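Subject: design request, 293 residues
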């Protein structure tokens, strides 16, 4: 007889999962099985050992310093990409997160936190209106005055969401605002892991209030990087380009120099904002550097 469980946290060769009846179980995982991720559905045997990793819908991850894909969590419905005036992101950080999310097949939602601080008149803040026009959602929150939290909570209901963003933008503050009894969950988890006080050092799946969904808090990185991929894969991160590329004269158009390019025509017509096209060019360049390193 096996028990179904959801992985909450995994590190090195250990993980903690919550069984369908609410029991927390710590287990080592054998090398023959792939490393489980927060959000993974698993089967445990009678001795509470990992028996099987059930198929995943998707994974979200980042590129490591060698450009390899490093998975962070699995089975997500959406990512919350948190940005804030402090620490201000580099111009491409948001575009990388949005692209990564789309490439992983997960809907991104932009969260502008710390709205109590003045918004700098620079990228990506001055690009948010253009992104909204392209269909991206932007939710404005402030943890200091607890504003915008209810609106965010509504978007999380019944879903599994991952909260990502630069270190210090307020991810954990948002998780705390969304989950009043987070301390209790964290305490219970620390008892099982024996890791003691818990800071955000690894991704962790938490229950939203009244079982209305799951939320993954992740440790912030300073500069989020993409992994090595083909130009074709990268293009999936810019879905607004795909439709326009139907109009390209050449099937293998690179959307850079060719005559009759549908993507560049859409940029010139203002259908695709110029800042998106330039961001895509920079990420393409970045890819060329990754493949050389
Ligand atoms: N002014 C202001 N400060 C905030 C707000 N939300 C969070 N902070 C502060 O920002 C700092 C960082 O918050 P955290 O929640 O720890 O940030 P984090 O994204 O979890 O950081 P890492 O775990 O390092 O990735 C703390 O000092 C918070 O008090 C906000 O809405 N406004
Ligand atoms: Mg944190
Ligand atoms: Zn083209």
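Subject: RE: design request

Done. Sequence follows.
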């Amino acid at each position: 007889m096996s028990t179904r469980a959801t992985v909450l946290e995994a590190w090195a060769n250990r993980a903690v999962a919550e069984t369908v009846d609410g029991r927390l179980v710590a287990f080592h995982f054998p090398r023959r099985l792939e490393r489980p991720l927060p959000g993974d559905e698993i089967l445990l045997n009678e001795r509470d050992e990992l028996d099987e990793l059930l198929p995943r819908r998707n994974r979200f991850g980042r590129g490591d310093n060698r450009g390899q894909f490093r998975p962070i969590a699995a089975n997500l419905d959406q990512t919350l990409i948190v940005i804030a005036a402090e620490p201000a992101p580099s111009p491409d950080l948001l575009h990388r997160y949005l692209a990564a999310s789309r490439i992983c097949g997960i809907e991104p939602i932009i969260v502008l936190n710390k709205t109590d601080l003045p918004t700098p008149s620079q990228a990506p803040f001055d690009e948010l209106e253009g992104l909204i026009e392209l269909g991206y959602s932007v939710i404005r929150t402030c943890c200091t005055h607890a504003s915008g939290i209810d609106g965010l909570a509504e978007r999380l209901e019944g879903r599994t969401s991952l909260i990502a963003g630069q270190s210090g933008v307020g991810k954990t503050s948002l998780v705390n605002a969304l989950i009043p009894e987070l301390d209790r969950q964290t305490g219970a988890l620390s008892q099982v892991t024996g890791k003691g006080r818990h800071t955000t050092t690894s991704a962790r799946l938490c229950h939203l209030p009244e079982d209305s969904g799951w939320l993954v808090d992740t440790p912030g990185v300073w500069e989020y990087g993409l992994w090595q991929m083909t130009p074709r894969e990268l293009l999936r991160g810019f879905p607004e380009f795909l439709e326009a590329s139907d109009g390209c004269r050449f099937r293998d158009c690179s959307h850079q120099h060719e005559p009759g390019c549908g993507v560049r025509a859409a940029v010139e017509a203002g259908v695709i904002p110029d800042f998106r096209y330039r961001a895509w060019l920079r990420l393409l360049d970045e890819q060329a550097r990754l493949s050389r390193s």
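Residues 143 and 174 are 6 Å apart (CA to CA).
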